[in-house]
């Protein structure tokens, strides 16, 4: 009997040790999908005129942000932050940053290249027709709205969040911007960097 109890206690101890060694899910402010959301096949064009599709999301981590090159504040300020974030993360992670331009009428291939090169020549600046963009953006969990205007100058409403896509090409998390009185909504670069690491380490393939 004593031998049986000793064996039972030893087994229980191993089970408890095993449970204790399991990593706990990240406790972060970002919206994290326990089961990553797959992205349907899409085809856009990058700033070099080359096709950009699902295959370019796979094999590494990705950060995607919506915008347009005529954006006066949120877009350039967010891209500046993402430049800093990518520089920090690239020490330990393979990360591709995507700028999804949602104003195809004005955001030509040449204009997107000149715009993104100011921040980082390794970033992708993709776009396409609204027929191509709308379903892709929707599956990212983001949104944009644009006026059907003949005017040369017009604003485009778009999400200010940044989407994290995993190595399998599926949406893993969304980093939401901070809303402060008197300021445009922007991501917190320090928070995004830290939470990215926690999420990537936990869900790494």
Task: Give a brief rundown of this model.
The protein has 205 residues and is α+β, with helices and mostly antiparallel strands.
Molecular structure report:
This protein is α+β, with helices and mostly antiparallel strands and 205 residues long. It has a single domain (33-203), classed as Glutaredoxin. 35% of the residues lie in helices and 23% in strands. The chain is built from five helices and ten strands. The protein has helices at 2-21, 74-89, 109-117, 130-140, 189-203; strands at 31-38, 43-45, 51-53, 61-67, 95-101, 124-126, 144-146, 156-158, 162-165, 170-175. The strands form three sheets. A six-stranded mixed β-sheet has the order 1-10-9-4-5-6, with helices on both faces. Strands 2-3 form a two-stranded antiparallel ribbon. A two-stranded antiparallel sheet has the order 7-8. Helix 2 links the parallel strand 4 (61-67) and strand 5. The radius of gyration is 21 Å and the shape is globular. The protein starts with a helix and ends with a helix. Residues 4-21 have low confidence and may be disordered.
Q: Can you tell me the CATH class?
A: Alpha Beta
Beta-strand portion reads 15-25%
Protein structure class = alpha+beta
What's the arrangement of strands in the largest beta sheet?
1-10-9-4-5-6
Cα end-to-end separation: 45 Å
CATH superfamily: Glutaredoxin
Q: Report the order of strands and helices.
A: HEEEEHEHEHEEEEH
Annotation, overall tally of beta strands = 10
The number of domains: 1
Radius of gyration from the alpha-carbon trace, in angstroms? 21 Å
- What is the CATH architecture annotation? 3-Layer(aba) Sandwich
Helical content stands at: 25-40%
Query: If helices are DSSP runs of H or I spanning 4 or more residues, what is the number of helices?
Result: 5
Mean pLDDT: 90
The largest pleated sheet is described as: 6 strands, mixed
Uncertain runs = 4-21
The shape is globular
Fold-level CATH name: Glutaredoxin
